[in-house]
Every structure is written in structure tokens, then in C-alpha cells.
């Protein structure tokens, strides 16, 4: 009780002032039409501003939910593209009756791109249907291949890794070779093993070849930015600028070939 009285003594003048101020404003607004109209308009403006700001904050906190929803929709669209034989260049190409893919949206927890051997960590794992040796892509290209997995996380060998070898083909020239990284620019990779009799031109599009169970045929990879034939060599030196920027990714998609195991077992019988 003593504390309450002490508080009232200390703040009594301020409280009385605020009560009298509120009463004065109320009387002015109530009995003066001009001031009443100004007060109402001002209140509406303030209320609108506050509501807009609250909507902005609410929208901000819902961004993760919206992103997740959009990513799930994109995953379904990608899966339909693979099933109906429409490649990433948006042109009807082939029907992959024996290559049916599931598409699983994922979030990237961590990644590197400045090392000799770069990796990514996915925020999902075996509990989400992920497995070893599955390909990871974005809407703009390929990211890498899952190499290690736990119930809630997956470790991906990036295409920016000295051991990464992705079989790719040239859209116009028709030949295929291996996409590797030379450890320098994360946007520039090399397409090797293309023989000199192939008509390779700058600007040609590089696609996944589909010669493995990991990536479906026809995914966009990048474009040829330089072609050189070293003296005395039978193999071109081809530099490819990838469409996907591995240094600036937060979300991706894991693609699972549901026929992969059957194909591997069949091919193993020839060994």
C-alpha cells in the first residue's frame, strides 16, 4: 500500500495533466464539428497506417510458408515435365516411360563455393525420402549429387567439386562429354572429351545427357562461352557458363528415379 501511495505522489501531477488533457480534447471534439471531422480523419489515417504496417509484418512472418507452398507447386510442375517428356527448354522432346521421377523440394542449410572441393548441406534427410546418389537441381540447372545422408540432413557433392563428373551433351552439336570444374570461377565449368570432328560453336546450349539414372535427359546446364583446340590435340577445350549460380542458392529439388534400382541391377548383369 505504501508503494502505491508513493507512486501516486511522484506521478500524481502527470496523471492529473493527462486526465485533464484527455477531457479537454474530448469536449473540443464532441462540441465542435470542424475539430470532430479533423479528429475522425486523422484517426482513420493513423488506423490505416497501423493496419498496413501490421499487414507487412504478418506478410513477412509468412514468407517461409509462402515459399514452401510455391516450392511444392514447382516440384509438382517439374515432375510433370519429366513424366510427359518435356525438357527444361520447354519443348516437347521424348516420353520417358522407363524413367519416372519423383521431385522433392528441399532447403539448403549450408554450402561452400570457394574451396577446391565444395559441398552443400540439405535441411532434409532420409525421413523426407532422400537417398544417396540422388541428383539435386534448381529451376535454373544442376547443383550436385547426394553422397551422405542422415535422418534429417543430407550432404551433397557440389558440381564445384574436383570429383564431380556430370555427363552432358551439346544441344546443337549432339555430342556428349563430361562436365567438370577446374577449381576457379564457380560460374565457369569445363566440358571435356568432345572430339575435334564435332562442330562445336560458341553459344551452344549444354544439357544433361540422360546417360545415367541420376539426372533426366534435357535439363538445362549452361552455354558454351569459349571453344579451343590446342595444337596437336584431338579434344576440344570447352568452357561452359552455367545457368545456375551455385554461390547463390537457398532452395532446390531432389529428383528420384523410381526405375534406377531396376536399371542398375539389369546393367550389372553384363559385368
Task: Give structural notes.
26% of the residues are buried. The strands form two sheets. This protein has a six-stranded antiparallel barrel. A six-stranded antiparallel beta barrel has the order 6-7-8-11-10-9. Helix 1 packs across helix 2 (33-61). It is an alpha+beta fold and 271 residues long. 33% of the residues lie in helices and 29% in strands. The chain has two domains: 2-61, no CATH class; 99-259, Rod shape-determining protein MreC, domain 1 (Thrombin, subunit H).
Number of strands: 12
Largest sheet, strands/sense/barrel: 6 strands, antiparallel, barrel
Mean pLDDT: 79
State which percent range the strand residues make up. 25-35%
Low-confidence residue ranges: 88-98
CATH-derived topology of the largest domain: Thrombin, subunit H
How far apart, in Å, are the first and last alpha carbons? Answer: 92 Å
The level-1 CATH class of the largest domain: Mainly Beta
List descriptors.
Thrombin, subunit H, six-stranded antiparallel beta barrel, 271 residues, alpha+beta, 29% strand
Write the layout of secondary structure elements.
Layout: H1 2-31, H2 33-61, H3 63-83, E1 101-111, E2 117-122, E3 135-138, E4 141-149, E5 154-161, E6 166-170, E7 176-180, E8 188-192, E9 205-208, E10 220-228, E11 237-242, E12 251-257, H4 260-268
Antiparallel strand pairs: 1-2, 1-12, 2-5, 3-4, 3-12, 4-5, 6-7, 6-9, 7-8, 8-11, 9-10, 10-11
Helix pairs in contact: 1-2
Amino acid at each position: 500500500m505504501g508503494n502505491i501511495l508513493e507512486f501516486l505522489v511522484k506521478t500524481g501531477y502527470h496523471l492529473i495533466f493527462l486526465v485533464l488533457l484527455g477531457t479537454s480534447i474530448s469536449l473540443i471534439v464532441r462540441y465542435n464539428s470542424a475539430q470532430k471531422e479533423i479528429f475522425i480523419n486523422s484517426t482513420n489515417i493513423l488506423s490505416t497506417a497501423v493496419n498496413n504496417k501490421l499487414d507487412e509484418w504478418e506478410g513477412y512472418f509468412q514468407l517461409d510458408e509462402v515459399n514452401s507452398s510455391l516450392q511444392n507447386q514447382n516440384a509438382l510442375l517439374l515432375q510433370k515435365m519429366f513424366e510427359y517428356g518435356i525438357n527444361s527448354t520447354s519443348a516437347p522432346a521424348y516420353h520417358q516411360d522407363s524413367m519416372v521421377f519423383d521431385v522433392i523440394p528441399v532447403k539448403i542449410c549450408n554450402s561452400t563455393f570457394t574451396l577446391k572441393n565444395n559441398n552443400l548441406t540439405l535441411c532434409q534427410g532420409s525421413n523426407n525420402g532422400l537417398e544417396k546418389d540422388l541428383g539435386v537441381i534448381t529451376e535454373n540447372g544442376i547443383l550436385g549429387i547426394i553422397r551422405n545422408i542422415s535422418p534429417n540432413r543430407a550432404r551433397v557433392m557440389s558440381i564445384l567439386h574436383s570429383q564431380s563428373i556430370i555427363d552432358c551433351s551439346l544441344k546443337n552439336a549432339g555430342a556428349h562429354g563430361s562436365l567438370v570444374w577446374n577449381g576457379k570461377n564457380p560460374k565457369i565449368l569445363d566440358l571435356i572429351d568432345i572430339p575435334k570432328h564435332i562442330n562445336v560453336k560458341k553459344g551452344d546450349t549444354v544439357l544433361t545427357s540422360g546417360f545415367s539414372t541420376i539426372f533426366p535427359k534435357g535439363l538445362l546446364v549452361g552455354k558454351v562461352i569459349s571453344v579451343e583446340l590446342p595444337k596437336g590435340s584431338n579434344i576440344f577445350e570447352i568452357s561452359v557458363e552455367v545457368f545456375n549460380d551455385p554461390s547463390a542458392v537457398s532452395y532446390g529439388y531432389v529428383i528420384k528415379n523410381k526405375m534406377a534400382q531396376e536399371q542398375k541391377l539389369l546393367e550389372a548383369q553384363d559385368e
